[in-house]
Amino acid sequence: MIITHYSVAELAERFALEFRGDGARIIDGVGTLAGAGPTQLSFLSNSKYTAQLATTHAGVVVLSADTADSCPTAALIARDPYVAYARIAALFERLPAAPPGIHPTAVVAPSARVSASASIGPGCVIEDGAVVEDGAILGPHCIIGPECTVGAQSRLVARVTLVIRVTLGKRVLAHPGAVIGSDGFGLAFDRDHWVKLPQLGGVRIGDDCEIGANTTIDRGALDDTVLEEDVRLDNQIQIAHNVYIGAHTAMAGCAAVAGSAKIGRYCMIGGNAGVLGHLEVADRVTITAKSLVTHSIREAGEYSSGVPLQENRQWRRNAARFKHLDEYARRLSALEKDKNDD
């Protein structure tokens, strides 16, 4: 087993950080402020955990300059400690080996093109016209459908399905159970029954995107469903057909975007939030958890909807009053009119 370790001084030099304390201390892993040991690195980015700094046993802590004087151990000083920690912690991530080649149990169509440097795991199926580019990794039981492309250095962890006409850019990470390129929900009602609309588009996903476990991205009805570069989707998210998501946008678990909505760049959408179809959301918009976007948002900012949690009896009383809101508003308007007339 290969043990990865770095001195504090090496980490400081590698990530262009100032360090204080023992630069020769060896670090071989990461941990929380409360749980880290003397050979582990931790970080402080949330003021709620400041009290834990005084008693930490971590070998080094990544923190900001204004808290460095309170650090009882070695310190790495960063403008944004959370970002710096994320970059350093990646050094200690140990992924299973993925040797180049095609596993004997994989099934590859004769017309598929698979790079010699790609790794195709057990039980994978690569269908006609599919392309797997240099250094891509397909974990167990992935399915790459017709006319699909897996970009260079992309990684499909396990049981990822690209249905048809899906293009993944470079370094895309798709977690287990993700389904990309499934049918969009297109239906026309003909008097007494539904007629299914064919979904003739595809899905285009840019470089450095991440698709969470069991997330689904439908292919377009005519044009493609599109994720620009560096879009990050959490687990169990639904992206409907013909949605367009701008670069560097992140969405938390169980969010859903209905068909033909357009999400801007650098947006953040909270867990279980929803965006109705055919709406547009501007760049740099934050939607808080469980909010429902029912109209287009034209300006950057933070937006919320929904009723905050209340004690149950209070909520029931308020809920009973909801159906009278229109009546109350009309009565108030009449009172204000009478007052003005006087």
UniProtKB/TrEMBL annotation:
<keyword id="KW-0012">Acyltransferase</keyword>
<keyword id="KW-0677">Repeat</keyword>
<dbReference type="Pfam" id="PF04613">
    <property type="entry name" value="LpxD"/>
</dbReference>
<dbReference type="InterPro" id="IPR011004">
    <property type="entry name" value="Trimer_LpxA-like_sf"/>
</dbReference>
<dbReference type="Pfam" id="PF00132">
    <property type="entry name" value="Hexapep"/>
</dbReference>
<keyword id="KW-0441">Lipid A biosynthesis</keyword>
<feature type="domain" description="UDP-3-O-[3-hydroxymyristoyl] glucosamine N-acyltransferase non-repeat region">
    <location>
        <begin position="26"/>
        <end position="91"/>
    </location>
</feature>
<dbReference type="InterPro" id="IPR020573">
    <property type="entry name" value="UDP_GlcNAc_AcTrfase_non-rep"/>
</dbReference>
<protein>
    <recommendedName>
        <fullName>UDP-3-O-acylglucosamine N-acyltransferase</fullName>
        <ecNumber>2.3.1.191</ecNumber>
    </recommendedName>
</protein>
<feature type="active site" description="Proton acceptor">
    <location>
        <position position="241"/>
    </location>
</feature>
<dbReference type="InterPro" id="IPR001451">
    <property type="entry name" value="Hexapep"/>
</dbReference>
<keyword id="KW-0444">Lipid biosynthesis</keyword>
<comment type="similarity">
    <text>Belongs to the transferase hexapeptide repeat family. LpxD subfamily.</text>
</comment>
<comment type="pathway">
    <text>Bacterial outer membrane biogenesis; LPS lipid A biosynthesis.</text>
</comment>
<comment type="function">
    <text>Catalyzes the N-acylation of UDP-3-O-acylglucosamine using 3-hydroxyacyl-ACP as the acyl donor. Is involved in the biosynthesis of lipid A, a phosphorylated glycolipid that anchors the lipopolysaccharide to the outer membrane of the cell.</text>
</comment>
<comment type="subunit">
    <text>Homotrimer.</text>
</comment>
<keyword id="KW-0808">Transferase</keyword>
<keyword id="KW-0443">Lipid metabolism</keyword>
<dbReference type="InterPro" id="IPR007691">
    <property type="entry name" value="LpxD"/>
</dbReference>
